[in-house]
Design a protein that fits this description.
- Helix content is 1%, strand content 50%.
- By secondary structure, the protein is mainly β.
- It has two domains: 311 residues, Glycosyl hydrolase domain, family 43 (Tachylectin-2, Chain A, 5 Propeller); 155 residues, Jelly Rolls.
- It is globular.
- The chain starts with 19 loop residues before the first strand and ends with a strand.
- The structure holds beta-D-fructofuranose.
- Beta-D-fructofuranose binds next to strand 1, strand 5, strand 9 and strand 13.
């Protein structure tokens, strides 16, 4: 393995494997006071293959302790994506000594003699460290080549377990029910709908709190599409709707969750205690288009920052919002601020130095003037810079990675991305940046607008600058914290 001394892109606050490849988060579950993160992992190399479940735990969703490989591939199957529940009702009969077992339901993928995917069950009585394969596997097999990524949850009002799983090529999410996690019966299908250019993967049906209405929650069905995201490549879409325990019905048009290129396969943590009440998810911060071509050597793939979900009721339009979990504030150290000052007043394009750093949490507010574009240059140095700003003509937040460093040679990586963003009612344009060593996550409009992107700048490019182009703009305030793991 290459030494980690050249590991300039290893994130400070985003999850990576100790070494080697990861993709989707799996089996996110809160238990015993800890946030468990299982994940698609190749324990043998830095490319996709030998898919197994890695495992880590955290007290605060920021610092992760690596645990031994949880579910390895076996002679005939790889362990693809899936979920974990805590069987605290003893419904499965799989617990030892009356303890509530961890139950994982995931896709076992066989390639020989022909490709075959079915849902398998494994259980653990020691908090997810050691797992036993259920002797009656598979627990759900429809004889399909592609049938995967089961997400299981307890449905309170019908008093049974519900699974959502995808038929990727049909662009369908299928719902099943079970009294015991071992026997499953088909309920209904949803789809095709929304983005159908690419195959569907990694569904989740999430009960999300509605802002400002204590007790009200909305059902959100998320499915990923392998292709067809507006930036090109893969991405996540959501449908807000109703779920009656048997059938999901979308009541709002599909929306893409993230306007950046690198947010995929997100699922929510299960069994978050009622007193916490949050819906929290994270995603694989990557894109199927170029994941294999990203330049890190000792490890490959990182997770997004965990995000709290809420739904905002915009006069009847229910909009999913994502914000970094509040725990992130505990990583804030040195703080600085500046502004207000006017830029580009003489009609001359301007760039000013604001500071430096590679792990930052900042909020910036602008008052648009005559400028066609204004914003920030992140990780600047030499010819490098990642531009994040506001385009006045498009009225859109944008990210431009064309000079971000050593990115994959793919238009999905190099082309700028735009997310519609109107100035606030007070005329200001405001956004938050979460910068880590290989990523930029942008949040605006209360988390309704999010852009998640990988970057691979050289370690010397550390400056933070502001720019205006084609006229004037006022940088009203910048508030910035250096973050520390
Ligand atoms: C999504 C995915 C899943 C599958 C897993 C295999 O990234 O393709 O559909 O279960 O990765 O690693």
């Amino acid at each position: 393995i290459p030494s980690t001394s050249q590991d300039c892109w290893r994130p400070a606050l985003h999850f990576t494997a100790e070494r080697f490849w990861i993709n989707d988060p799996n089996g996110l579950v809160f238990a015993g006071g800890q946030w468990h993160l299982f994940f698609q992992h190749n324990p043998q190399g830095n490319t996709w293959g030998h898919m197994s479940w890695g495992h880590a735990v955290s007290d605060d969703l920021l610092h992760w302790r690596h645990l031994p490989l949880a579910i390895p591939e076996d002679e005939s199957h790889m362990a693809f994506s899936g979920s974990v529940v805590i069987d605290d009702r003893g419904s499965s009969g799989l617990g030892a000594d009356g303890q509530a077992p961890f139950v994982a339901i995931y896709t076992a993928c066989a390639q020989q003699p022909v490709r075959h995917q079915a849902q398998h069950l494994a259980f653990s009585s020691d908090g997810g460290v050691r797992w036993t394969q259920y002797a009656g596997n598979p627990v759900l097999d429809i004889g399909a080549q592609d049938f995967r990524d089961p997400k299981v949850f307890w449905h309170e009002s019908s008093g049974r377990w519900v699974m959502v799983v995808v038929l990727p090529h049909e662009r369908k999410a299928s719902f099943y029910a079970s009294p015991d996690l071992r026997h499953w019966s088909h309920l209904s299908d949803f789809g095709p709908a929304g983005g159908v250019e690419g195959i569907w993967e990694c569904p989740d049906l999430i009960s999300v709190p509605v802002q400002g209405q204590p007790g009200r929650r909305a059902w959100v069905l998320k499915v990923d599409a392998f292709e067809g995201h507006p930036t090109g490549g893969s991405g996540a879409q959501v449908f807000v709707g109703d779920f009656d325990g048997s059938r999901f019905r979308a009541t709002q048009p599909a929306r893409w969750v993230d306007h950046g290129s690198d947010f995929y396969a997100a699922i929510c943590w299960a069994h978050v205690p009622a007193e916490d009440g949050r819906a929290v998810w994270l995603g694989w911060m990557n894109n199927h288009r170029y994941a294999a071509a990203t330049p890190t050597q000792a490890w490959c793939g990182a997770m997004s920052i965990p995000r709290r979900l809420s739904v905002r009721d915009d006069a009847g339009a229910l909009v999913l919002c994502q914000e970094p979990v509040a725990e992130l504030a505990t990583a804030r150290r040195e703080r600085w601020q500046c502004g207000p000052f006017a830029l580009g007043a003489g009609g001359v394009d301007e760039v000013v130095r604001l500071g430096a750093g590679d792990v930052l949490d900042l909020e910036i507010a602008w008052r648009p003037g005559t400028a066609t574009e204004f914003g920030l240059l992140l990780r600047c140095g030499g010819q490098e810079a990642t531009r994040v700003g506001w385009d006045a003509e498009r009225r859109a937040l944008f990210v431009d990675r064309s000079l971000s460093g050593l990115g994959p040679d793919d238009p999905v990586y190099r082309l700028p991305q735009y997310a519609p963003l109107a100035p606030q009612a007070d005329g200001r344009v405001v956004w938050r940046v979460l910068l880590d060593r290989c990523s930029v996550e942008l949040f605006a409009d209360g988390g309704a607008v999010v852009l998640t992107n990988l970057i691979f700048p050289s370690p010397e490019s550390l400056e933070l600058r502001a720019f205006v182009r084609g006229g004037s703009a006022e940088l009203l305030s910048l508030e910035c914290w250096a973050l520390e793991a």
